[in-house]
Amino acid sequence: MTALAERARAALDPVHWDFFAGGAGEERTLRANEEAFSRRRIVPRVLRGVGDRDLSTELFGTRLSMPVLVAPTAFHRLAHPAGEVGTAGAVAASDTVMVVSMAATQPVEDITATGAAVWFQLYPQPDDEFQRHVVKRAEAAGCRALVVTVDSPVFGRRERDRRNGFDDLPDGYTCENMRDGEGRVREIGFDPTLGWEHVHRLRASTGLPIVLKGVLHPADARLAVEHGVDGLIVSNHGGRQLDGAIATVDALPAIVRAVDGRIPVLVDGGVRRGADIAVALALGATAVLIGRPIIWGLAAGGPSGVRDVLEAFRDELDHVLTLAGAARPSDLTADQVA
Ligand SMILES: Cc1cc2nc3c(=O)[nH]c(=O)nc-3n(C[C@H](O)[C@H](O)[C@H](O)COP(=O)(O)O)c2cc1C
Ligand SMILES: CC(C)CC(=O)C(=O)O
């Protein structure tokens, strides 16, 4: 475990630590994500006169200072009283994008008020009218894209949470963005009957870019492009849904080939070092998302802890790019990964 994760663990209620750290089943996929990155080796290019680096990247009209986004993760107030608003403040300072979870514990309006660029994550809701309500609210708050998580037709079996009896937020906390028109908080719905027609209905109800999160098969990536989706996140939900699912960096190359440059492909799961980001970029990802390390930063140090995590990723990526002979993320090529 990293020193930061140790500090987070010491700061957290052990039940909440298990919720944040854990995965589904035997946690094979959770481990596989990091292991798959650890197996990759970078093949540097030399004497390329790299000079000053420019890490900035554009996604759907937003300029990010680096190709690193904050992944949607639930329940930030359980990690630190500053909650999602605290995380967003750090994201604004680092000039990147925060994907706000549908299971956020603070109102999306307060989160966007920090000035951070925000995308809103949606579990596809079986009640269309309620989903439209949530989407309109996110739009009105200034969210710039919708991230639709498609790897959760049912909720994953998290054995640590079962052992701990953790199945809901404690009293005093709610999923603030699950309120309906009457202000009542709904349960997040998981629905195994939903198909591509759900994406069509969502498409018809919003002008925001739609990004599908949780795609691992190249045939689904192709279908997503055909169905008018604007971006993909190659993800296995940080090993919290299908235990035994392929590691994300192993799935990435086939998806990049299937998409063939038509829409941006992002990836998350097990990104822990600047070298991991460089590998993902070289294999064709436009950017990566970071899940647990952000929570560890928040738990250990509040908003400034999140800022430290983001800046450490920036610093490491810049260093790796220089050593690998790349001035920009797009200079890295697939032949530089062994
Ligand atoms: C505590 C926790 C909560 C999460 N909550 C959500 C969520 O609400 N919606 C979602 O799409 N993904 C959720 N995820 C998955 C993350 O968005 C992301 O895919 C994953 O954490 C990336 O892996 P990493 O933690 O190894 O970086 C969650 C992950 C964690 C660890
Ligand atoms: C509590 C859930 C809605 C979020 C979560 O834990 C997850 O998506 O992994």
TrEMBL record:
Keywords: Oxidoreductase. It holds the Pfam family FMN_dh. The keyword Oxidoreductase applies. PROSITE patterns: FMN_HYDROXY_ACID_DH_1 (PS00557), FMN_HYDROXY_ACID_DH_2 (PS51349). Its cofactor is FMN. Coiled coil: none annotated. Residues 1-338 form the FMN hydroxy acid dehydrogenase domain. The keyword Aminoacyl-tRNA synthetase does not apply. SUPFAM superfamilies: FMN-linked oxidoreductases. Belongs to the FMN-dependent alpha-hydroxy acid dehydrogenase family. This is Alpha-hydroxy-acid oxidizing protein. The lineage of its organism: Bacteria, Bacillati, Actinomycetota, Actinomycetes, Micromonosporales.
